[in-house]
What we know:
By secondary structure, the chain is an alpha/beta fold. The chain has helices at residues 3-14, 45-56, 61-67, 136-148, 185-192, 208-219, 233-242, 249-259, 288-295, 302-308, 317-326, 392-400, and strands spanning 17-22, 27-32, 35-42, 69-76, 79-88, 91-98, 124-130, 154-159, 172-177, 199-202, 223-229, 260-271, 276-284, 348-349, 387-388. The protein is built from twelve helices and 15 strands. A seven-stranded mixed beta sheet has the order 9-8-10-11-7-12-13, with helices on both faces. It has a six-stranded antiparallel beta sheet with strand order 3-2-1-6-5-4. A hairpin with a 2-residue loop joins strand 2 (27-32) and strand 3 (35-42). Helix 5 runs parallel beside helix 6 (208-219), helix 6 crosses helix 8 and helix 8 runs antiparallel to helix 9 (288-295).
Amino acid sequence: MSASLAALVKAAWQQGASDLHLEAGLPAAVRVRGVLRTFGEPVPAKVLLELAQEVVGIEEWPRFLERRSFDLSRSISGVRCRINAMQTSRGVGLAVRLLASFQTSLEKLNLHPDLKRLVVPENGLVIISGTTGSGKSTTLAALIQEINVAVTRHIVTIESPIEYTFRPRCAYIRQREVGRDTPSFEQALLDALREDPDVLVVGEMREPETMRLTLNAAETGHLVLTTMHSGTCAEVLQRLVSTFPAEVQNGVAAQVADCLVAVVCQRLRYRPDLQIRVPELEILMPSTAAKSFIRNREFFKLNQALETGGDAGMWTFQRYQNWLSKRSQWHVPTSTEEPPDQEPDEKPVHALPPVSTKPAKPASVPHEPSTTPARPAGQPGRSIEIEPVEGGLDEVLKKLA
């Protein structure tokens, strides 16, 4: 990785930034506690083009030129980053989301311990919603980790791109990246139903077909965790149902009402006393009244169910704010310590090579399995210490060459 990009990421991380923006001819910009500010000298267009080519890679660069954008995730300077490279009027730009450097958990994210109940059921649908940048993916990762450290389950994640990598502990975890390990969310969901999963994680429900397959998975004995963009719990359910054709919306609404475990809507609010942004939640649980409103598509009445559903485990934003005001113990992450390095004794798992929907070109290097052994799984009940390898099998072959 280029020293320049690594230095920029490290500088942003040390400032406690959540995002780093690079645009040709402009200084680097970081978002710290929701506020955008610039630092350093303007980045020349040529330098930024070289950074983009390096981070995207020579093999994937034609896809960037075709689509004028590219999504990927990567560890840079010890910080896990989600990166979007895009064509702009000035040239090539990079938007880098800096993900949490610590192992995510509900406690470390200052979330209510009630969320642990959401991953107890063996089947059903859990939706984490919120606006862009509200921490949906991080909360989703914390729920996965709750399962990982406590229950022996087979977890399959489908993400675009993979943001958080997990070391399997009690759970057996497979992570698949759309575009690299599978051509689409739809294909990965069809595959997952034949892979004996207990928990299925869908990075985001965007298209109607993805939503349909996700609902079917939740109805067929799987616990499904997913995210959607929305400002309230009522809005996310209304958007989910209204995405389908009008003639099937009644059936979809009944399907959602029957399989719903919870809807969580999240937003971040800056606390000057703590100098951190704290998540505020609205949580809708499937009470009898809520199910009836969903089945009849009376989404405007769900606010009424939220207001009166405290005993059923529901939270309004105001009720959650009251709980936050009484909380005395907080986890405040530090931004001055060095990013954690990967543990040197970890053995990589060999991922599949990138997937393309176009005819494959003849490979210049034969795709033979690597001879590097992974660490044995150990005895039942013991943790499994395995790290995914960046870039899949192609990267392993390059290192062995």
